[in-house]
Amino acid sequence: MEQLFIGVLNNAITVSALIVAVVVVRAFGNKMPKWISCLLWMIVAVKLVVPIQFECVLSLIPSGKPIPANIVLEANPQINSGINGLDSFVNPMIRQNFAPDKSVSINPLQIFFHIGAIGWLTGMAVMLTYALITYILIRKRVSTSVKIDSMVYECDDISDSFILGTISPKVYIPSTLSDEARKYILKHEFAHLSRRDHVWKPLGFLILSVYWFNPLCWIAYILLCEDIEYACDEKVTKNIEKGEKAEYCRILLENSMPRTMISACPVTFGGTDVKKRIKNVANYKRPAFLITTASIMVCVAVGVCFATGRDVKVESNEQKLQKAELENNIIASDGVVEPEKEVNENAVAEVAPVSADAENTNTSNPKDAEFTYNGNSVSIMDSFEAIDKALGGYDPSHSIKKSEQSLYSYGKNQEIGMILRNDSGTEFPVTISTREPVITTSRGIAVGSSKDELIDAYGTPNGKHPTAYDGTTGRELTEEEYIQLFGESFIYDLGDYTISFTVKNDKVMTVEYRNTVNYNKFDWD
Fold first, then answer.
1. Which uninterrupted H or E stretch holds 164?
2. Is the pLDDT score of 255 beyond 80?
3. Residues 420, 339 share a domain
4. Structural domains in the chain (count)
5. What is the Cα–Cα distance from 520 to 332, expressed in whole angstroms?
6. In a 10 Å sphere around its CB, with 0-12 CB exposed, 13-18 middle and 19+ buried, how is residue 290 labelled?
7. CB under 8 Å to 358, separation ≥6 — which residues?
8. What tens digit of pLDDT does each residue of 153-167 get?
9. Is the pLDDT of residue 36 over 60?
10. Are 376 and 227 in a shared domain?
C-alpha cells in the first residue's frame, strides 16, 4: 500500500507543473477554441492515469519520480527532484527527522508513509461515497419522470436540465419549460452527448478522488467543468444568427441554478457560472484556421514539455560497483596509464602557464597520497584496516561485498566510495572517490574548487583518461564526446598512485585516488 501511495504522490507532484501550465495557457488563450482547452485537460488526465513515465529530452520536468520507491528502506532517505537547490534544502531535514535509528526497530519514515496511505485511502473513500450518494438521490428524484422522446424524460421534481448516466445516458428536463426554452436546452444537452461529456466529467471526478490531496487537482476539475460548458455553448451557437444567440443567452439566464458544491454528476444546463458563459457566447467568433492551428501546436508543446520527464538516474550501490568494474575494464583495455612525453620548447608556449609551485608536480611525494576527511589523515597507500578506521568505518547497509571485488560506502550520505580487490582473504584498496566536498587533498583541493585552483596546485596533468567507446557502435569516443559525457579529466600520475579530478563548468566535480601498486596486482579483463 505504501508503494502505491508513493507512486500516487510522485504523479501528484510532477503533474502540478502541467496543471499550472494549462491554467496559464487557458488564461492567455482567449481566442483559443474551448474544445482545445478540454483537450489540454485530457493531457492532464492521461498524465494522472497512465502509470508509465514518458521521457523526452525537451521535457521541463527534471524528474518523473522525485520520491524513490525504496525510500522507506534507505538508511539515508532522500528525494531526487532533479533540482539541486531543493534537494539540498529538503534532504537534510528528511535525514534529520526520518533516518532510521538502528537501536530502534521502528522506521519513522515507514510509519509516516503508512499513516499517509491510510489517510489517502480514507479521503478517496469519502469522495467516492459522496459521488455514489449524489447519484442515488438524483435517481430517486427522477424516478417518476415521463419519457417524451428518445433519451428525453420530463420530470416535475427538478428545476434544471441535465444528463444522467454514462453507459445509457438520459436527458432530464423540467416539465415547466416553454417550447422555445426546451428547443435550445435540448440542443445543448445533445451537444454534450455528442462530445461524450457525460463520460468525461464523471471520469474527471474519479481521478480527483484519487488525487484529492492536491489543491491543483481541484482547480483543474473546476476549470474542466467550466470548459466543458463553454465548449458545448460554442458547439450550439457557432452556426446560429445573432438573434438566436440572444434568445439562447436569455434562456440560459432564466434556467441558471446556483451551485455551492462541486458535483460528480450530472452534466447540467445551467450549472456553471452563467455570466461568464453568456459573455463567451456573445463574444464568440468562429476562430481562424491559423488560430486553431497555433492552439493545437501550443497544446502539443505543453504536453511534450510538461507531461513528460527527464528522469534522474540515481545509482544504487550495485550499479556503482558494476560501473566501477566496467571503468576498470576500459582502463585495462588501454593498458597502464603512462605519463605524456615531454613537450619541446616550441610547444611550451602553447601550453597554459603553470605556477612555480607546480613545477615539481611529477615528483612523487608521499604526502600527496594523503587527504583529510573529518579531521583525519587518510592515505591511499595504507592498508584497508587503516583506511577503514580513518574514514570512520564503512556502512554495511550501503556497501556490497563480493568474493573478488567490493564497494564500501562511507559517510551519512554515502559521501565516499572505496573499491577493493580480494586476494586470499586480504582486501587491497584500489580507488577512493567522492562527488561531495568532504575530503581535501594535501594541496588544498576539494570538490567545488575552481579549475584554476586545481592547476595552480598540481600543474599540467601528466596522465590521460581511459579510452571509452560508444556502447552501441563500438566506436571510440572523441575527446569532445568524452568531455561531454564524463567531464574534463585532470589525471596526475605520481608513480605508485594516481590522483584524478573531473571538471565541469570550471569546477571540480569528483576526486579519485588510485593505488596503482594494488591496481596492477590484478587482472581486470
1. strand 162-164
2. no
3. yes
4. 2
5. 10
6. exposed
7. 455, 456, 457, 458, 459, 460
8. 999 988 888 899 888
9. yes
10. no
First to last CA, the chain: 45
Can you list the alpha helix ranges (DSSP code H) found in 56-211?
A: 84-98, 108-141, 179-194, 197-210
Q: What percent of the chain is predicted at pLDDT more than 70? A: 82
Question: What are the residues whose beta carbons fall under 8 Å from the beta carbon of 134, sequence distance 6 or more?
Answer: 263, 264, 265
SS3 assignment, position 237: helix
CA distance 387 to 135: 70
Query: Which CA distances in Å does 401 have to 76, 117, 221, 264, 514?
Result: 19, 35, 52, 56, 19
CB atoms within 10 A of CB 151: 16
Tell me which residue of 171, 173, 177 sits closest to 190, measured CA to CA: 171
Supply the range of the domain harboring residue 403: 317-519
pLDDT band, very low/low/confident/very high, at 102 (cuts 50, 70, 90): low
- Please tell me the distance from the alpha carbon of residue 184 to that of residue 195, in angstroms, as a whole number: 17
Q: Does pLDDT of 518 surpass 50?
A: yes
In this predicted model, what pLDDT tens digit does every residue of 459-484 receive, in sequence order?
A: 888 877 667 666 566 677 777 777 77
Is the pLDDT at 447 greater than 70, yes or no? yes
Least confident of 97-106, 258-267, 278-287, 365-374: 258-267
In terms of domains, do 295 and 432 share one?
Answer: no
pLDDT at 224 over 90: yes
Determine whether 179 is exposed, middle or buried from the number of CB atoms within 10 Å of its CB (0-12, 13-18, 19+).
exposed
Residue at grid coordinates 567507446 = 469
3-state secondary structure of 67: coil
- Amino acid occupying residue 32: M
Q: Clarify whether residues 220 and 364 are in a common domain.
A: no
Read off the DSSP letter of residue 225. Answer: H
DSSP 235: H
Strands 370-373, 376-379: pairing is: antiparallel
Does the structure show a pLDDT above 70 at 265? no
Cα–Cα distance measured from residue 221 to residue 448, given in angstroms and rounded to the nearest whole number: 46
Co-location of 456 and 343 in the same domain: yes
Mean pLDDT value across residues 343-349: 31
Nearest to 496 by CA among 515, 520, 513: 515
Q: Length of the chain, please?
A: 525
Q: Which DSSP helix (H) or strand (E) runs through 44?
A: helix 34-49
| pLDDT for 318 beyond 80 | no
Query: Which residues, at least 6 apart from 287, have a Cβ–Cβ distance to it below 8 Å?
Result: 31, 32, 33, 295
Cis peptide before 266 (omega within 30 of 0): yes
Compute the chain's Rg from CA coordinates: 33
Which 3 state secondary structure label does DSSP give 327? helix
Q: Please name the amino acid found at residue 327.
A: E
Amino acid at 265: C
